[in-house]
Amino acid sequence: MISTFFDHELKSFWRSKNTGKSIAVKVVMGILIFILFLYVLALGLFMDKLVGAMFPKEDLTVAFCGIVLVYFLFDLLMRLQLQELPTLKVQPYLHLPVKRNSVVGYLALTALLSFFNLWPIVIFGPFILKIILPVSGAVTTLVFIVSIIGYSIFNNYLALYIKRKANLNGWIFLIAGAVLTLATCGDYVWHLYSLKAISYLFFGNLITKPYLVILPVVLAVAMYYVNFYYLKGNLYLEELSSKKESAKSSTEIPLLSRFGHVGDLVANEVKLILRNKRPRSALIMGLFFMFYGLLFYTNPKLGESFKIFVGMFMTGIFIINYGQFMFSWQASHFDGILVSKVKFSDFLKAKYLLFTIVSTVAFILTTPYAYFGWRTVLIHFVMYLWNLGINTTIVLYFANRNYKRIDLSKGASFNWEGVGASQLLLSFPLILFPYVIYLPFKYMGYTNVGLAVLAIIGVAFIITRDFWIKKLEADFYTKRYKIAEGFRNK
């Protein structure tokens, strides 16, 4: 049955309208991965030299045993960010006499076809064969290789399980990232314990106690079955929804209910963001970028001009990151929007309202930067007004020129769906316009006047928002059929 699923996926790929584009992307990605593989292979071949240079006073085997666990912590973090979930369009099989175990087994087994599972063997394999085999023998070499494969498979399924759980609750991803960060800081920042010593506790004893290889094997098998039964229990859409019946609908958010029909549209947008991987990742990344100021504000050599950029970026990251793909998020049902009774002016007002709410929350989250001075918060507030007035209008203007659809179910890592020339052109006005206004005043010595002008322009655009909505609506009606045609190309 697994071969049948694989055959169906191949046919689906070759019969797709975008097969040519998909092949081109895969060729480019294949070349990049091959180059990366050569670098990783070189790292593996010279691992003994690198370990000897990093730990000149330690035995090579002892030093090696101390870094393996550190690698797997880093490996897990990279998997959470970059590894894609294996997918299969299961809906066509649900009404057929296909065993549920076959469908779930296919998804679980294809998860092993990841380059992340190859890297540990390529990196550590040469070292084990060159250093451990001559000294400790074939049995120890074998248990080392099996242990590394076991931990790699454990990381593989743990990362997939976390990402699948995060599809239902975005906080799980943040909690997992926080745990990994705290585990790293506990050693390298706070020095509460030594990851190197913990790593040697297992891999060092593996030399004299080969039976310890059972631990990574058991962990790998256990994590496989955790994934297997989780997928099996959530294979049908109604089972996923039945577990959340008690949850309050986003349409019942009191803040949104005050805005009538526009509030309902925003509530639907909130559902779209929370229920789909790629838009949700845009929201989650926005939360991570709230720490962006620490990269700049802790460096006294950087002047106030950088605060303009950082303030705009932190209070408007969602507008930039999510808004640049308007209206591609609605590509799958865009034709329905065109023929519905929804006024496009209300549709635009909903976008403005969504951006206003999220940007306001982002500004509130940046107020602790008052630690670097209240003027920093003032600049954030000025750029918050600029984002609400100028950047939202610019983003929605370029949205009328984006004809590329987005598959909401796909992740953001190495995903260029929806990316086109409009995204490249969008970055220039977003970054340059504030400086075009601010820098002349700065060079004349009137930085406060420059900030005031930025704030006044932002407020002026907010006050005249209805005028700009009418302009955007008129512009949209001249391009709606071209946008719809572009969204139909899968």
Automatic annotation (TrEMBL):
- Provenance organism: Mucilaginibacter rigui
Q: Which Pfam families match?
A: DUF5687 (PF18940)
Q: Which UniProt keywords apply?
A: Membrane, Transmembrane, Transmembrane helix
Q: Which domain of life is it from?
A: Bacteria
Coiled coil (residue ranges): none
Stretches that traverse the bilayer? 23-46, 61-82, 103-125, 131-154, 166-190, 210-231, 281-297, 309-331, 352-371, 377-399, 419-437, 443-463
Q: Could you tell me what this protein is called?
A: ABC transporter permease
The record's listing under InterPro entries reads: DUF5687 (IPR043742)
Keyword Transmembrane helix listed? yes
